[in-house]
Amino acid sequence: MTLKFQSHYNLASNITSMALHEKEEKGDQRISRAKFFLIALVCSFTWYAFPGYLFTTLTNISWVCWIFSKSVTAQQIGSGMRGLGVGAITLDWTAVASFLFSPLICPFFAIANVFVGYALIIYIVIPTAYWGLDLYDAQKFPIFSSHLFTAAGQRYDIPAIVNDNFELDIAKYKEQGRIHLSTFFALTYGFGFATIASTLTHVGLFYGREIMDRYRASYQGKDDIHTRLMRKYKDIPSWWFYVLLAVTLAVSLVLCIFLNDQVQMPWWGLLFAGAIAFTFTLPISIITATTNQTPGLNIITEYIMGIILPGRPIANVCFKTYGYMSMAQAVSFLQDFKLGHYMKIPPRSMFLVQFIGTILAGTTNLVVAEWLLHSIKNICVDDPQSDSPWTCPGDRVFFDASVIWGLAGPRRIFGSLGNYSAMNWFFLGGFIGPVIVWLLHKAFPKQTWIRLINLPVLLGATAYMPPATALNYNSWIVVGTIFNFFVFRYRKEWWQRYNYVLSAALDAGVAFMAVLIYLSVGIENTSLTWWGTNGEHCDLAVCPTAKGIEVDGCPVF
Questions:
Q1: Nearest 5 degrees, angle CA 420-CA 426-CA 430?
Q2: pLDDT digit string (tens) for 197-224?
């Protein structure tokens, strides 16, 4: 059985592969796609030496901070990395594509949904909550932060509330008080609740009938041209999948049962995580295929295990990893199989490549990560003044999430013992939202734009924030709009021929230069120190604005 939805990611991969094997037609005056790819790659490779090493401030040009160097509020508004990013620009492709991936391969309707959701949250909800309502004592904390705070606006001393078994020390927790979040961080979780709820409703209403029709058609032998062409190859035996599932499940159960002191997750947690991943893989795959945006299961898995086993962060992290990564890997494998389907690659070859590649990549990643942790001094130290590229913003968010959902538990943050119980209403809003859009679509069928309202994408617009920043989103939206709206509309022939090739070339050029920079100067921790490598110059953006709150390096109001 196959359910087919167009994937823009696969289009980019296909066209890039075609470009590298394209034969030039005689008399064609246009530059070939292979030559265009090479030129763009060399330009991307050469330019990245500047924002990547020589002039790193080009990554985030926050001119508002330069003008208002003594104003906390102005820097909160103008900082691209730690504020709202008003006026901040970037000349670094990694800042554009690092979190939301290349905007050149994302359809414009999805970009528009992200823009609406992002603008609503960042430029309406957050300023209103922070400066207008002082929601949850917002002004005691930075406007944009994933850190955890005390009621006095100081960083929460997390090691002080952890016992020797990496579990919550209730007495120490009561002594230090409740954990507080920045208003932005709290609202990000609220919109995350809405996103996962809206995903189920949206897919059920807008794609439910199509799913059933394609399900029936697959059993009735009604195949498209690609499926008929693929029949010349031997299909993958079902027992290959069953054996792989049995082996991986057995190994994971051994970890949970015999190494429970380290894993801390009961064996049934593994099965439960797998069931959640199985339930959400189809709806999330459909959202990914149609919008190139992938809602995550991290929040819902953290929430569930946090309710079941509060005070045990290691168990929570393991449950989240098994639940989230099972779904994410399934979606990734489906993308690869769809690519093979388009390119007419034998299914058995695709399976073996994926299997071997996963083992090699997983082993290599583990070895490299272990080596980096022991060879780079102060790796993952969160210092705003540091010019080190090894600050690990994603890992900081991962750690803080383990404290919120695992160590403290949802009840002490989003429940009756916490400050943010109102965020749970976002589940209901996310569930009802697609119903309203669907009813409007049925009531006004001629208004085709209504169907393009994709609430899982709109509500989940800021799902990557933090660690993604306003700079990442602003640049991604602008570049995506230029190419997938203006260039697509007014230079469509150029767009069809070169757009996806340009995307791949920009990614490849940056990747090659990043490796070269690391091997030549990064491995020796050799850095340049001058004005152009001192970050975005928005040091006051992390300061609170409430009266009487004292934070190092910040003025007291």
A1: 165
A2: 999 999 999 988 888 887 777 666 556 6
